Amino acid sequence: MLVGMISRRAITAALLAGTTGSLALARDELLTLPGKKPLVKHTFRPPNYETPFAALRAPYTSNDSFFVRYHLANIPRVDPRDWRLRIGGASIERPVALSLAELQHGFERVTVTAINQCSGNRRGLFTPRVPGVQWNYGAMGNARWGGVRLRDVLRKAGVRAGALEVSFDGADTALLPKTPDFAKSLPIERALDEHVLLAFEMNGEPLPHWNGAPVRLVVPGWTATYWVKHLTDIRVEPQAFDGFWMTSAYRVPVGLFPGAPFASQTTKDTAPITEIVVNSLVTSHVNGDRLTRGKPADLRGRSWDGGSGIAAVEVSVDGGRSWRDAALGEDMGRYSWRGFSAPLDTSRAGPIGIAVRARGRNGAIQPQKLVANPAGYHHNVIQAMTLEVL
Ligand SMILES: Nc1nc2c(c(=O)[nH]1)N[C@H]1C(S)=C(S)[C@@H](COP(=O)(O)O)O[C@H]1N2
Ligand SMILES: [Mo]
User: Whole-angstrom Cα distance, residue 219 to residue 193?
Assistant: First the structure.
């Protein structure tokens, strides 16, 4: 359903967030999926909808405005009563099929606040253009995920010595037999990390259909491609998983980005994308915004990385020549994003050249120049914008 009440101007304002590339997306429509507020539509089948810019201002992205990303068009509504999670593979001692009740009541419940960010978030801002969904800033969201530890479930089924990878498949399937099924794998060490969850709750509510009901994988710190939705099958194997979405997609040139290694899937030239890179987003203003002379104003936004935690956010008001530390907001956990704010001097009329860069506790800092790569992943160049004091 097209939302007729929202004007073209409002849509444009929602989408413009400061840098070149945004304008191209102003043509997109805000549309609703059942159970969702209007989102920014990129494709209908498979559904690819991003979180509107304004919704990124909330500390937790609400379930009804959380982005939706799929590779395959056939997405069944899973009946939780019939659903089973099968756990098997050559490195599992006792294969099992768990019902939702067994999963929910058989293991310790845990929650983690974490950013779910698509590897291709901001792909639409790459110049030259990179093929793929032309995401703006909203292929991400921060939520409180509730479920049970993957590790507890795997250990109950018994992990044999020599296990190398764990693969994950969901209930969605392709329309055409030639399209490879969407399945992902993790190195065994990561799969056994205490923060990796089989999640059935999001912000205290049952996981919404479009975000993977009844159960999805949550891999805090790693890009969302690993967060397999509508999970049905988990396999632990002594060899590398060879599905298309591991061997051919979601890969980056070796050594181009920092992040956890994935040795069993790394070739001479490319490696799977893994951890989210350090990043930030101004949410209080967009490029070209006007400030009233003499009226106090704060630059505000959010910063995050792949789980080392944010050490500092620096703000420049002279186009990147000098930098000052912004105040950091509440620490919501190292996998969460973190707010920042910095007062703006509005005493003199004229342009203010804003730039923002975040630094992780691991020392990584946002780059001055966009790191180009063939699939348009990890867009984290320092955000720059000009505000005008009038
Ligand atoms: N079953 C299934 N899970 C999936 C995908 C998919 O296509 N099918 N896409 C992945 C990718 S690439 C992203 S970015 C996230 C998006 O999560 P969301 O739709 O809950 O925002 O889901 C991941 N899990
Ligand atoms: Mo993604």
Answer: 9
